[in-house]
Design brief:
Elements (H helix, E strand, L loop, with lengths): L15 H19 L7 H17 L3 H17 L6 H14 L3 H18 L6 H16 L3 H19 L6 H14 L3 H18 L5 H17 L2 H19 L4 H16 L3 H18 L5 H16 L3 H18 L5 H16 L4
């Protein structure tokens, strides 16, 4: 199946413990089949690899998921299984995106879209819509907000045309659409899209589906950007327990919520609390993804701003520089995050400040 995020598709609603138990079952199944004299059939082995990869992705083990998907791709190419290639390319893109390897992710999404043209009939096939939505997310992360908007609007119209206005498949696309609107500073539009998605969840899914928490996180983040910090925190704190139940206490998605909560406290002049959440987020993202993760860079930037506010200028400069190095390795030179950090460093240099 095509992936879009950790909350879409089979197993997403299960608890973290349930996912771990299911993963162990697939591991045992793979081990049993390897013991057979003739080995497992290729199609069944690819299905086992795909399900193990999905579960690993959903519990935050991105490197493990990547390894299984690469094995699945090698088997599909060896057996000339062309119809499954769009799915595998897309899912590899999802993992690479999660690992902050955005250029590689885009390459795989474009391969997925190219191969989907021959594998899936119909211009509005749902798989094509999800691939298009994933492409829009990379444009958004890279700061190309106009192209992100055009691609995501296209994906949404494809879904609406094929499935109607209230199908559950709309939820992940609306989630991306709202994030893009937030990036474009169209905050009321972002909130409208989040609320529309919540209405679909309430009508078509369980009320404690993890998408509820994901959408609440999005609403809270938009309120942060609007300067409504008390309201933002009420939404953000409500998401933590739900997300932790389904993906575990060390999932990178949980770290993203911590970053949003940290931002709300930072902008509300509650720097001690902000520091706590940023450090929690850094610990998770470094462990699960690595020291050059884009969200680690984001946290370092905020730590630098806190150090600057507290007149620890040398420390602030070091933190800004480390964050800038990460951003430059992942993002295009004109990205707003890079420009903002360059401006902060320039202002510090011009002020000739020191501890």
């Amino acid at each position: 199946a095509i992936w879009v995020d950790p909350f879409y598709g089979p197993f997403s609603y299960e608890s973290y413990q349930g996912k771990c138990q299911r993963l162990e079952l697939y591991r045992n199944l793979a081990r049993d089949y390897r013991r057979l004299p003739d080995g497992p059939g290729t199609e069944l082995l690819m299905e086992i690899l795909a399900n193990k990869a999905r579960l690993l992705y959903q519990i935050g083990d991105y490197r493990g998921a990547l390894k299984h998907l690469q094995h699945q791709l090698a088997l599909a190419r060896k057996e000339d299984q062309k119809k499954i290639l769009p799915e595998i390319y897309n899912n590899l893109g999802v993992i690479l995106e999660a690992l902050s390897r955005f250029s590689e992710a885009m390459d795989h999404y474009l391969l997925a879209r190219e191969t989907a043209e021959s594998a899936f009939r119909g211009s509005n096939h749902p798989a094509k819509a999800l691939i298009t939505a994933n492409i829009s997310q990379i444009y958004n992360l890279l700061g190309n907000y106009q192209e992100a908007f055009l691609e995501c609007r296209k994906a949404l119209r494809m879904c609406e045309s094929k499935l109607g206005m209230r199908h559950p498949l709309l939820v992940p696309v609306l989630l991306k659409y709202a994030r893009i609107s937030d990036s474009r500073e169209l905050y009321e539009d972002a909130l409208d899209q989040y609320r529309r998605a919540l209405q679909v969840v309430e009508r078509k899914m369980e009320l404690d589906h993890p998408y509820v928490a994901a959408l609440m996180h999005g609403i809270g983040q938009t309120y942060v950007r609007q300067g409504k910090f008390d309201l933002a925190r009420r939404y953000l704190y409500r998401t933590v327990e739900n997300i932790e139940r389904t993906v575990g206490p060390q999932h990178p998605c949980l770290a993203e919520i911590f970053i949003s909560i940290g931002q709300a406290h930072f902008h509300n002049a509650e720097e001690k609390l902000a520091l706590q959440y940023f450090h929690w987020a850094i610990a998770i993202r470094r462990k699960q993804i690595g020291p050059d993760d884009i969200r680690v860079g984001q946290c370092l930037g905020f730590l630098g701003r806190i150090a600057h506010h507290q007149a620890r200028f040398q420390e602030a400069q070091t933190l800004f520089t480390r964050a800038l190095d990460i951003f430059r390795s992942k993002l295009p030179s004109g990205h707003p995050w890079i420009l903002n950090l360059q401006n902060s460093l320039y202002q510090m240099d011009s002020g000739d400040q020191s501890d």
